[in-house]
Amino acid sequence: MSKSKELYRRAQTLLVAGVNSPVRAFHAVGGAPIFMARGRGSEMVDVDGKRYVDYLGSWGPLIFGHAPPPIIAAAEKALRLGATFGTPVESEARLAELVRAAFPSMELMRFVSSGTEACMAALRLARGYTGRRLIVKFAGCYHGHSDGLLVSAGSGAATFGHPTSAGVPREIARLTLVLPYNDATRVRKAFRSHGRDIAAVIVEPVAGNMGVVPPEKQFLRVLREETKRHGALLVFDEVITGFRLAWGGAQTVYGVRPDLTCLGKIVGGGFPVGAFGGAAKIMRRLAPLGPVYQAGTLSGNPVAMAAGIATLELLRRTRPYASLARQTARLSAGIGALAAPRGLAVTVNRVGSMFTVFFTDRPVRDGFSAMRSDARRYARFFQGLLKRGVYFPPAQLEAAFVSCAHTAADLEKTLTAVAETFEEL
Ligand code: KE4
């Protein structure tokens, strides 16, 4: 038996499904999850010594790949001075200066320890600031696992949410309206019906959690107009897109300024960091200045701040976005070109250095069309790549990522593995 399988068997006696986050358990792709031992650049090595070109990138944080020396050095240096104090430290302001330089809309901010916390706190703040109850989200978007966001669309016209998880009371789910992504008409309709009671709209400005789905023409502009017109807040969940698509995230790429922005993943350079921020007049409603409570023992942790600072300083200096986009365009076009002659129905959506290979012959423009993809065929695709030393996200409705550490040789190896795998599908 492989060491990985042994470790999995042991982990299952201690951790639920042997993992600390459900999607790592490989239930969507079958088989046992692989235990990793180390990573360097674009490569991960599992506990049995097998090497993989990594397109998971830890679900988004690793824009410079695994163990980038400047980030490791910064974290090591901070760690030697003490892991945590529970007091203010200078590095919190330093990271906040870098975040605000990239996201001027974040006039004031708070650091937390995950994207879930950032989105949960941003929505509590939006409700506290507006005095309203309803939240609007979009089917297929994921904003972490706080109760009010584990909600699916109601049937038909009834857009009030239903819980997608046990343990979420219906009363809470019903405070979330769920609309189709990229459907400006339904947004206008929802505001006509409920405008006075909507506290905020939260959206992934480029979706990553239904697989990669870009916003269409006026979608984000309509969200900005409708929220402004009705006194609701627009919240951009840039946990994936922040520092991924551009130095200033999706709000810079699409030219739409939200009222609140949530960040995560890259901003912590691989350490647990989330952030939320926006106009000072909104953010000042947070405790201890205002009545909206939010807190966290390890928020602004100095080691995580040091890793985030090193990451953002490297991004600001190198601005790798054009080359990342070119590389990812080459890879995704290559994958599409390999599918066509084999009669495989494949749609590849790409924005910047995030992409998804959907097994469908139709465009994927929202959660519903994404769900029409052949998840079983994706599972076989994933396993075929895995045995050839290429690690994609272990679920169809997720984003794959290219990092600054991926080389032309990595992409060639990947396209060869894809061609061979396509032969088996
Ligand atoms: P975390 O609490 O997992 O740090 O962030 C939640 C979150 C919020 N917003 C967006 C747009 C996100 O993508 C996420 C988390 N992403 C998932 C994968 N798509 C994390 C992987 C996991 O759950 O293990």
Write up what this structure looks like.
- It is a single chain.
- The chain is α/β, with parallel strands linked by helices and 425 residues long.
- The protein has 2 domains: 3-63 and 320-424, Aspartate Aminotransferase, domain 1; 69-318, Aspartate Aminotransferase, domain 2 (3-Layer(aba) Sandwich).
- Helices cover 37% and strands 15% of the residues.
- It has 14 helices and 16 strands.
- A 7-stranded mixed beta sheet has the order 4-12-11-10-9-5-8, sandwiched between helices. It has a 4-stranded mixed beta sheet with strand order 1-2-3-15. The protein has a 3-stranded antiparallel beta sheet with strand order 13-14-16, with helices on one face.
- Helix 6 (184-194) runs parallel beside helix 7 and helix 13 (375-387) packs across helix 14 (408-424).
- Bound molecules: ligand KE4.
- The site of ligand KE4 has 18 residues, from helix 4.
